[in-house]
Amino acid sequence: RPGAQEWVPASADVGALARAVHDCRGCELWGPATQAVFSSGPDDAALALVGEQPGDREDQEGEPFVGPAGRVLADALHAAGMDPDEVYVTNAVKHFRFTERGKRRLHKKPDVAHIRACVPWLEAELSAVRPRVVVALGATAARAVLGRQVRIGAERGQVLDGESHDVLITTHPSALLRLRDRADFGETFDAFVADLRTAAEAAA
Length: 204
Ligand code: URA
Ligand code: SF4
Fold this sequence. Notes:
- The protein is an alpha/beta fold.
- Helices cover 40% and strands 14% of the residues.
- The chain has one domain: 3-Layer(aba) Sandwich (Uracil-DNA Glycosylase, subunit E).
- Iron/sulfur cluster binds next to helix 4.
- Residues 38-197 form the Uracil-DNA glycosylase-like domain.
């Protein structure tokens, strides 16, 4: 099929995948981006978190969730009683998609075509890591993990049985960032923490 498949080495471990992703030309997003961003965390983790795509900071540093969304995510993992370093963290799409506004690079959501093109990397890394539970952070991740459109509000927080791993859908930490100064931030944050805790218990 079109997309990343021809650049994904067969039965590779995470290290080999992370090296190979830099050559990927599976869609056009590699062009404007600084570099591909693969994963972080142990390659035998019981829990894997899947985000949307690298942001501006991640694109520059080459690591997932090292920017503002990553800080919220780490706070929430701590609040759920987890060590962020013990979780495998990756993204549905491995290159940063953005539009330029003056000197600023503004995040632009990946299209369904980008998600489809990039999914062979996610499938390969999940085959290598074999987590018990995969948490999809937001709609893009959920589409990549489940291969269908998902309404977060309707499906979040449930442990969905799968063949090779269970799946839990929750919000994206960037959605929390946008609420930071609002009165209902605490409630939204707590709901995110509760979902992470549900996932951790299912993975234990
Ligand atoms: N948002 C994501 O989905 N992934 C990152 O790596 C950073 C921000
Ligand atoms: Fe390849 Fe994914 Fe980057 Fe597209 S976004 S070039 S499919 S790694």
